[in-house]
Structure formats: C-alpha cells, structure tokens
Amino acid sequence: VEGAWAADGKGETIWDRFGHENQAFNNHTVDTACDSYRKVDVDVYLLRGLGVNTYQFSISWARVFPSGYRASMSNEGVLYYNNLINALVESGIRPVATLYHWDLPQAMQDEGGWTKDFIVEAFKDYADFCFSQFGDRVKDWNTFSSPWVVSHAGYGTGEHAPGLILLHFVLLFQVTHNILKSHAEAWHVYNDKYRGPQGGKVGIALNSDWAQPGDPMKPEDVAAAERYLEFMLGWFAHPIFIDGDYSQVLKTQIEKKKTDCTGSVPAVLPTFTAEEKARIKGTSDFFGLNHYTSRLVSSSVGGCVPGPQGVGDFRAYVDPSWPTTASDWIVSLPSGLRSLLAYIKNKYLTTHNVPIYITGNGMPTEYSGDPLNDTSRIDYLSGYINEALKAITDDGVDVQRFTVQSFMDGFEGKQGYSERFGLLHVNFEDSSRPRSPKQSAYFYAQIIEQNAHIITIIRKVHIT
Question: From the UniProt record, which GO molecular function terms apply (predicted)?
Fold first, then answer.
C-alpha cells in the first residue's frame, strides 16, 4: 500500500523489480500503490472511523535499510514508520508490525537473497534495529508473514518475486531453512535484549489451507492430505513449535523423491545442527495463522511439478460446490478454518502452549463492476468469524485475535490491482488515490462495535 517506491532514498525491492519487468497483471507496479507513504493522517483517520483496536502493517526492509544493511540506514524511512506508529497509538489503535512481508531489498537478492547464509545475520540485525527504534510503542511483532509463499511461489514456481523456478528443489528448501534460522535469531534478539524493558511478543504468521482427504475412506488419500499439511504448514510449524527440526513425514517423503526430479542436483532437505534445533524450538509467543481457503487432496504421483505438490505426491483440488471468489486459488469453506484451528491445537500446541492469532483472513472481489457492493465478502467474513468462535466455544481452541485482510485494496503480487481484498475501495485511476468504504466496511464496523458483548459471553477475543 505504501507506494513511493524510490522516495527519500528508499532502496529497490524485489517487487519493484518484478513490476518494472512487467511480470504483474497488466504491467501493474507498486510505484504509487495506495500512496499510503503520503497519507498517514488520512489512513489513521479512516481506521478510527472503522473502529479497529489493532492495525497490522509491514515494515519495508529497503525503506529502513535501502541496501539491506544498517550502514545504509534511512532517517526518512525511520521517520515514516515513527509517524505511522505514533498516529496509531495516539488514536488508541495498537500497532502490529511485520518485519518481512515478501519485499526483500533487491541489493540482497543480487547477492543470492534467501538462498544464501549471509541473510540470517542480516535479518537479525534488521530486526534488532526495528525493535530498538519502534519497540517502545509496538508490542506485537510478526517476523514473517506467509513465509511458505516466499519459498514456494518466489523460488519454486516463480509466480512471485524474485520469480525464480528452482526445479531441483535444493535452493527452494534452502530458502525455508534460512527463513527459519532468521526467524529464530530475531526472536532471540528480542528475548535477550528487549522483552524485559518493552514487554512485547514476537511470533510468526504462517499461512495454511485446510486439507480434506478426497475420499476419507481411502487411507492413501488421508495420508496425502496429511502430507499436504506437512508440506505447507508443518514445513515451518514443526521446527518452531515441536522440536526444532523438520517432521519425519517431510524427511521421508523428500528422501523418497530426491532422485525423481534431479535436474543436475538431487533434491535434499538441509539439516539443522543440534545447536540450531535448540535455537529454533519454541521461538514464538503465539501461533500466527493466515488462512483463506481449503482443498480436497488425493494421492498422486507428483512427478516434477515445481514446488511441494510435485515432491509431495498429492493432488489438490476444490469441490465445485464450494463458493468461488475473484481469485483462482481462494474458495469459501468456513468450516475449514475451524478444522484447521483444532488441528493446530492438537498437533502443535500440546507442549508449546501459546495462543493462536488469526493474522490474516479475507477474500478478493473483482476490480470491475460495482466496487462498493461486496456482499460476497460479508458472507465470507461472517462465516469465517462464526467458525472461529465455534472453535473457541466448542473445541476449546485459544484464539485471541482475528485480523481481516485487508483494510484497503492494494497491490496483490502477480495479480497487481486486479483482485481487491479491501474493506475500503481505492480508486487507482485517480492520482489522489481516494478511499471509499464498501458495504463490508459497514458490516465489519458493526462487528467491532459489538465485540464488547461477544467478550462477555465468549472470552477475550479481539476482532481487529
């Protein structure tokens, strides 16, 4: 949403490069986006009108450190985030900051990005700086948002920046390996230096679909659905929330497939040292979950399809009766959220007992037609919020926060501005980028206004 892609010395990111190479829909770029860099007061005013008590945003690494390193620190970039955070706090809105939401400084990508070991220390130093600068007011931190997308779509299928297709999987696995170590180092920096004086929380926002067996009576489909979840959620969750290492399901399957799609190098899962396992285990103060959709999964020989589906030997698809959205990957199945929350509770939170924060849930509508009439979004959000509440009241899942994606329409990766996730419509044809509330904004404001009544009946759930 920020835009101002090169303003005040900001460094180029991989998404700037991706857009300028015309890889997004209709040659869209993030050059201006919603122009939020210049509209802090407007956006915070609109947030107050919506009635939210929390606003989740991401910090652009390249706006703070244009080259990715502290020596290039931009005073103007730091000032922008200070102004945003201060405006939120003054308005009674709790800022939630994400350190990395996909936009790596291009200068670091030129050095190999997430495939290289240097990135771990660089991210640790960037996180340290952000905690020191903003942590007196920011008490909730996501180190990464949807890191699976970075590995799978950025370095596996090439659909996202930096647009690499790594068919032999070695570097794809290395990306996740380095992200996990980077997350752990950031958590330890906060734990060692800032938790005492600042009193905040640091976690990670993992993304996952819900996977249902195509035929629940077939053991092979049940096993395939489990592999799907292991290759999506478990790839990151198992090391952090269980034992510091990849799951045995993941190891066994990758070992089985390592010679099927060799290219020039066999697919081998990197290994953690005993010290690294101890360093990673338990490094999250909450279980952040981004969830949007569900899949039916059946057993299949994946062959050499890029990404986890190929190496995981499963086929994922949707039931044609499930309501569709403007996105080709999001269908509406609210019960999937409840099932996933129970799965997370029972699989990952039995020993590392932390609350679940739903850090992202939403659906897109078409950019054409009547942009303010989004009753389908109201149906979607109503269904998913209800299922989250059922998980709390009926299943005993400790869900403490529900964050809708998103506040306003924005740049949606390869889809550019063709898919609209916002409660507020942004007119990208107008240079002033005016914002207008959609029907879903009024609906959601009412949900928020009634939250006090929900709290008294249910438990402490923050609808944000």
Answer: hydrolase activity, hydrolyzing O-glycosyl compounds
In the chain, how long is the greatest CA-to-CA distance?
61
Query: d(Cα 342, Cα 210) in Å, to the nearest integer?
Result: 11
Q: For residue 417, is it within any domain? A: no
- Spatial contact of 363 and 412, defined as CB atoms under 8 Å apart: no
Q: Nearest-CA neighbor of 307 among 333, 339, 282, 329?
A: 329
**Strand-by-strand arrangement of the 210-213 sheet:** 210-213, 294-299, 314-317
Taking the C-alpha atoms of residue 161 and residue 415, their distance in angstroms, rounded to an integer, is: 12
What one-character DSSP code corresponds to residue 70? Answer: G
CATH no. for residue 342?
3.20.20.80
The 10 Å Cβ neighbour count of residue 262 is 14
Q: Does any domain span residue 92?
A: yes
Owning domain of residue 44: 37-403+439-463
Beta bridge partners of 206: 289
Question: What is the C-alpha separation between 294 and 443, in angstroms, rounded?
Answer: 24
Q: What is the pLDDT of residues 145-191, one digit of tens each?
A: 999 999 999 998 889 999 988 765 778 899 999 999 999 999 999 99
* CB of 103 closer than 8 Å to CB of 13: yes
pTM for this one? 0.95
CA 349/CA 346 separation, integer angstroms: 6
In a domain, 306, yes or no: yes
pLDDT tens figures, 82-111: 999 999 999 999 999 999 999 999 999 999
Q: Which helix H or strand E contains 262, and what residues bound it?
A: none
CA distances from 345 to 143, 289, 354, 396, 398 (A): 21, 12, 9, 9, 8
Q: How many domains does the chain have?
A: 1
Three-state DSSP state, 96: strand
Q: Is residue 423 part of a domain?
A: no
